[in-house]
Amino acid sequence: MATKKTETPSRIADNKKAAFNYFFEERYEAGVVLHGWEVKALREGKVQLTDGYVLIKEGEMFLLGCQINPLKTASTHVNPDAARIKKLLLKKNDIERLTTKVEQKGYTLVPINLHWKNGFVKCDIALAKGKAEHDKRDVIKDREGKREVERALKSRNR
């Protein structure tokens, strides 16, 4: 009797810059349409998500700015394009809801991470609103404060 494995999502790439630059309002998980060489490159971790953004055009969602660098052992009959536009798969009513939200001032769609889920590549996207400069300074100040407290505790425990 075979037991069914429950696979936890494993991260491929994170967009840490997005959390610094935006407030996340809503999160969605979308499928990504990829070519074979892209899947192989993702398994090797050859992806950069920091400059990526999501565009909605004619009722479809696309991931732009996501760089998937091809492996050196790519097939000879395939011409890999690292900056290829990838289609995102999401339910139609979610796309329509996001379209109306994005048309409002200040909202954008940002990819948060890429991960594996049941053998498929998924992209977490967020409806985001840009942070002001003073909000970013507050984040930096809080981060530095936590770091100093941790250093003090670490040196005290020695």
UniProtKB/TrEMBL annotation:
A GO cellular component annotation here is: cytosol
Q: Origin, by domain of life? A: Bacteria
- Where is the protein situated, by its record's location annotation? Cytoplasm
Q: Which family does the record assign?
A: Belongs to the SmpB family.
PROSITE patterns per record: SSRP (PS01317)
Organism listed in the record: Comamonas terrigena
What GO biological process terms are annotated to this protein in UniProt? trans-translation; trans-translation-dependent protein tagging
Q: Which GO terms describe its molecular function?
A: RNA binding
Q: What does this protein do?
A: Required for rescue of stalled ribosomes mediated by trans-translation. Binds to transfer-messenger RNA (tmRNA), required for stable association of tmRNA with ribosomes. tmRNA and SmpB together mimic tRNA shape, replacing the anticodon stem-loop with SmpB. tmRNA is encoded by the ssrA gene; the 2 termini fold to resemble tRNA(Ala) and it encodes a 'tag peptide', a short internal open reading frame. During trans-translation Ala-aminoacylated tmRNA acts like a tRNA, entering the A-site of stalled ribosomes, displacing the stalled mRNA.
InterPro entries, A to Z: SmpB, SsrA-bd_prot, SsrA-bd_prot_CS
Task: Kindly state which keywords UniProt assigns to this record, in alphabetical order.
Answer: Cytoplasm, RNA-binding
The name on file for this protein is SsrA-binding protein
